[in-house]
Design goal:
InterPro entries: AAA+_ATPase, ABC_branched_ATPase_LivF/BraG, ABC_transporter-like_ATP-bd, ABC_transporter-like_CS, BCAA_Transport_ATP-bd_LivF, P-loop_NTPase
Largest sheet: 6 strands, mixed
Low-confidence stretches: none
Number of strands: 10
Oligomer: single chain
CATH superfamily: P-loop containing nucleotide triphosphate hydrolases
Order of helices and strands: EEEHEEHEHHHHEHEHEEHH
GO biological process, one term: L-amino acid transport
Bound molecules: adenosine-5'-triphosphate
Organism: Kribbella sindirgiensis
CATH topology: Rossmann fold
GO molecular function, one term: ATP hydrolysis activity
Pfam family, one: ABC_tran
CATH class: Alpha Beta
Strand content: 25-35%
Strand order of the largest sheet: 6-7-8-3-9-10
Helix content: 25-40%
Shape: globular
Amino acid sequence: MSAMLEVKDLEVAYGKILAVKKISFSVEQGQVVSLIGTNGAGKTTTLKTISGLLRPTGGEIWFQGERIDHVAAHDIVTRGLAHSPEGRRIFPRLSVEENLMLGAFSRRDPAGVRTDLQAAYDLFPILGERRKQPAGTFSGGEQQMLAMGRAMMSRPKLLMLDEPSMGLSPIMMKRIMTTVSELQRQGTTILLVEQNAQAALKRADYGYVLEVGKVVLSGSGRDLLVNDSVRKAYLGED
Ligand code: ATP
């Protein structure tokens, strides 16, 4: 069987700057796959291109057996691929519930949407308790929960998370990472971009290390965690 997501020789440029240089990777159904790497490695650019916000200058992206690299972003969401972006991008003046409902914009099944809204509140009770509050009053960790909840409202088969742990306290980070495992258990496939390599690899079935726009290493999460060069470069060990 082919992978749920396949990225083949992807190339993405900003003008003359090549940010992603022929990277290839795949995500099998049911897996958590992590992309790790330092600032500027091309992780965010890769996710934005998969979700149709940027167009590649080369290569191919396949999702569930169909090529999507020239499909419109809203259509990609409808096909079951959701993106929780870096920096969360919530709408501060809208209420928590309004933010969540935006994630369901493409759906035509109101009963299913209500069920999933409740599921988001079950996953993150604080969202339910404050459903009428403006999202801008939330802390960073709460906004991250909201961004994840909003992405889940499209009932995605594949959820892409861009640096969900960024700026969070260790406790909140643990909470978010536990949720990643919980969503996997419930059947969602996850592509997780992180600078926090330790947290990301611990939960990953498979991982890819990106450096200046290229995949330099890949392996099971467990293997990468004990890999010498990963430990030196990303886990701060001598
Ligand atoms: P970070 O963790 O800092 O987001 P990243 O691995 O996600 O890093 P990208 O944001 O994808 O990396 O950036 C990859 C390269 O593309 C970098 O060299 C960056 O400076 C460049 N880049 C990113 N966005 C733009 C842009 N809008 N215009 C020009 N260059 C850009």
